[in-house]
Amino acid sequence: MDENFDGITQSGAPWYYSDIVKEHFFNPKNFMRAGEDENFQADGVGQVGSPACGDEMFIWIKVDKQNDKIKECRWRTFGCGSAIASTSVMSVMVTENNGMKIEEALKIKPQDIMERLGGLPARKVHCSVLGDKALFAAINDYFHKSGQHNRVITEGNRLIDPILKITDKDIEQAVLDGARTLEDVQKKLKVGVGNPEILPAIEELIRFYKEKYF
Amino acid sequence: MQKRYRQTPLNPFNPFHNFMKKQIYLDHAATTATDPRVVKKMLPYFTKEFGNPSALYGAGRRGLEAISKARKIVARILNALPIEIIFTGSGTESDNLAIFGVARANKNFGKHIITTKIEHQAVLESCVALKKEGFLITYLDVDENGLVAPEQVKKAIRSETILVSIMYANNEVGTIEPIAEIGKMIQKYNQTERIGKNRVLFHTDACQAAGALDLDVNRLHVDLLTFNGSKIYGTKGIGVLYKKRDVKIEPIIFGGGQEFNLRSGTENVPEIVGLAKALEIAQKEKDKENKRLIALRQYFWKKINNKITKLKLNGHPKLRLPNNLNFSILDIEGEAILLYLDEMGVQASTGSACASQTLEPSHVLLAMGLPYEFAHGSLRLTLGRETTKSDLDYVIKVLPPIVEKLRELSPVRLEMKNLKERTHPEYKKHK
Question: In which element (H, E) is residue A138 found?
């Protein structure tokens, strides 16, 4: 048995939120207040998830173009405590010390966010740490809007559903074949059935390919 | 209820951050505190009268007498015979014993079982396990209020049906099912279609109902009925299965042959005594208590609707447990609401996926046709004996700013009319 086994959870992972999570949940940083977004001149906007899946996130960024650094990162999140806290802490990570280089920001992984939060309950990790994906989308949006097409990152062959071995290419094909919603794609591929934590990633891909092709 | 006071640095953003924190428990559908009168009744059986009821000496005999007395009390309240009362280890165990017990003892007559989509996991997962043993399960739909109609049950019955299991009242939304009507219908079916054959048996899970509703098994026309101690101010770890005398079931626990050979294991004397006392108190006080709870609930619902927009009541507006209030707060997520409420000393529950171990939203809310977004934002407050008007006033004070704050953080702006328009993907695991 794992030596970290605490007798509370089967996985031995923390069973509840750390103080850092709580701090970011009760005192969220950098979120976009009501009405503020109308006058906020974002260089890039990213969206990930959907309320149907339990989490939805919007990210607005401003870029210091001279230094290729993220100047401001604002957000709104629909979701549980860890979803809110992980977006909040990520917005701090990319803007502290005069901002993070875009290249560095693109490398942020859910694990980095988790580490900074002092860990998350195991079952929360897959579904609620979506900030990096929303940021990725916002940066790509910035590349598009600023005409840096050579920097736009298209997704490679990424395994989306490890059980059914479905990749992003399969989802791309489904969208090209006429699927427009999660239901459509699920009818075609059965992806994510019985594996709801991957649904936000699928929705994100559907949106990505819809925008790309239509 | 003991009120704890603690002071932790709270969000200065909240206008109420420097309040002293009370602890307000509004999760009585999860479990209740044990009534001190029950504890008092149980105490001698821990240290003094601890003998094994199977033993011949005095202490054992006195234990047996205590069980026998408790059995009579429970039987009288259920309008049943003492021999029809089986003590088990929990409501879940009683549900399992009823379903596996009937299924395995009657499989030669047929292998079809009817239940609903909104049952407790104790029933649903038993059915999933029986499917692996070759049984066929029909899961009945419910309407938007969570109700099952007797007609639906009638239509679902086939010649190979052996058991119908429908909950008395739902644990999440509090909807009360028409058990007596369904029972009567099944009885009529048996009298016309099953003459000289095995009859269709009817089980009801009454765990949520036991403290608030009529438990007369003759009026309910049930063959089996489950309830437990932990929802009626008794203790956790004790359950009852009522089983009509002529109904054949097989045990699921084997050993020394206690409880008429249907539930082996040394009898849990203190808890059996406690459960009888708890049921006695609950049934005696229920009329008065129900009235009080309904008035409190109405008061809260009216007040909170004046303060928070976009609320949707989940469950039946009238046919619901007196203590249950389940509603969706649009645009925000349930677990986040619970965490903020907990920080303010209020304990409640949600049907959001984020708060469940399975990461799926409440199967009950989805079965009622609620869109995922609405299920994620659901909040369940279940009142209890120690709940006062001032407790609810406190919630009325702290909940609106929490909702306001989470709505400010949220990118979602749903409309109530979305309720009818939105559909949801079928990503529930198929049972």
Answer: helix A131-145
